[in-house]
Amino acid sequence: MRAVVIEQYGVLPVVQEVPQPEPAPGGVVLKVEATGLCRSDWHGWMGHDPDIVLPHVPGHELAGTIAAVGPGVQGWQVGDRVTTPFICACGVCEQCREGNHQVCPNQLQPGFNYWGSFAEYVALPYASVNLVRLPLELDFDTAAGLGCRFATSFRAVRQVGRVAADENVVIFGCGGVGLSAVMIAAALGARVIAVDTNPEALKLARSYGAADTLQASLETVDEIRDLTGGGAHVTMDALGSNDIVQQALLALRPRGRHLQVGLLPSGVQLDVGRLIGQELQWLGSHGMPAHAYPEMLNLVATGNLKPADLITRTITLEQTPAALAALSTTTPAGVTIINP
Predict the structure, then answer these.
(1) Measuring CA to CA, which of 107, 168, 198, 222 is 20 to 30 A from 44?
(2) What is the mean pLDDT of residues 56-74?
(3) The whole model's pTM is what?
(4) HSE (side-chain half, CA atoms, 13 Å) at 164
């Protein structure tokens, strides 16, 4: 099969012919119909993830059709249209038994723990726990975008952040995660303020439901306080930046909630005194388990959420290495989907 192969961190990967994967016991192999290009893939390419072993195939947002079924798999067959969370949980540990698959200590992540979906085929473990059947009306490009950015934002905003109608919610960073969060928070009835350096991203944010947009600057915190009458109820770092974290915490009103979704490979400094004195909440959110997908898929089916609108570019496998490298200097507006 054809796949994008990383042979050295930070060096442009190439498309190569590599062996097609075989399904493990309890797992399946998918023919990849669509896969998303995500900043997490860039972190992996740069060597920020200790689980990656070179040579490596990235890619963790995906949708496709089952091409092969491993021993012990029940309820799934070749040809089924499916997607999966980027966190493939074991299904049997304490956290999984309690429904917290997104923090399973035995989790396997395609594109990180093993070869991922920037390829024509990808293996998925623990099929009974992690596969999500796709409605016939949901196309593969849209479904691929759900697996990481949209699902992550849905759980962060609705389930972890508990965003409610009429709350002031500030989203820092309007890439795929941030724009998904804008759309979801607006659909919940919140007043959304989007912050980014990219005017095109801010234009998209407004079209997805942001009431206000702010070009990131040294005055951002003051502007947020003016717009919200004293500070946001909820802030979210959708990019992963120490500077953003500082602004987000300063922009909160007392007893506000901060959602950290963007990765922080270089760490972060926190004003713990402010966290305590203002009774602020720092809330981490990491993906969403397969069993939580039905609520999100129902809202997509009814038109309350329109993740297809987030897709701004589709590219080929051959165009993927350059698009991955471009994330070193810019974050493109919207979601990029790869069609292998």
Answers:
(1) 198
(2) 97
(3) 0.88
(4) 3
Measure the CA angle with vertex 259, ends 258 and 265; round to 5°: 110
In 3-state terms, what secondary structure has residue 30?
strand
Question: Quick one: DSSP state of residue 60?
Answer: -
d(CA 159, CA 293): 12
Rounded CA separation 179/200 (Å): 12
Residues in the chain: 340
- Do residues 145 and 305 touch, judged by C-beta distance below 8 A? no
Beta strands in the chain (DSSP E): 2-5, 14-17, 28-37, 61-69, 81-83, 121-124, 132-133, 168-172, 191-196, 212-215, 232-237, 252-260, 281-284, 311-316, 335-339
d(CA 180, CA 338): 18
Distance CA 332, CA 310 (A): 12
- Kindly report the backbone phi and psi dihedral angles of residue 286, in degrees, each rounded to the nearest multiple of 5, phi listed first: -135, 90
What is the token pair recorded at 11? 């060096």
What is the CB neighbour count within 10 angstroms for residue 10?
Answer: 10
Q: Are the CB atoms for 186 and 249 separated by under 8 Å?
A: no
Structure tokens at 174: 């309007």
Q: Are strands 132-133 and 81-83 parallel, antiparallel or unpaired?
A: antiparallel
HSE, CB side, 13 Å, CA atoms: give it for residue 34: 23
- 148-178 pLDDT, tens per residue? 889 999 999 999 999 999 999 999 999 888 9
Structural domains of the chain in order of their starting residue, each with its CATH number: 2-150+288-339 (3.90.180.10), 162-284 (3.40.50.720)
pLDDT range class, residue 271, cuts 50, 70, 90: confident
Q: How far is CA 236 from CA 27, 87, 104, 288, in A?
A: 35, 21, 24, 17
The three-state secondary structure class of 158 is helix
Give the integer Cα–Cα distance in Å for 309 and 311.
6
| Mean pLDDT in residue range 80-97 | 96
Rounded Cα distance between 69 and 78, Å, is 7
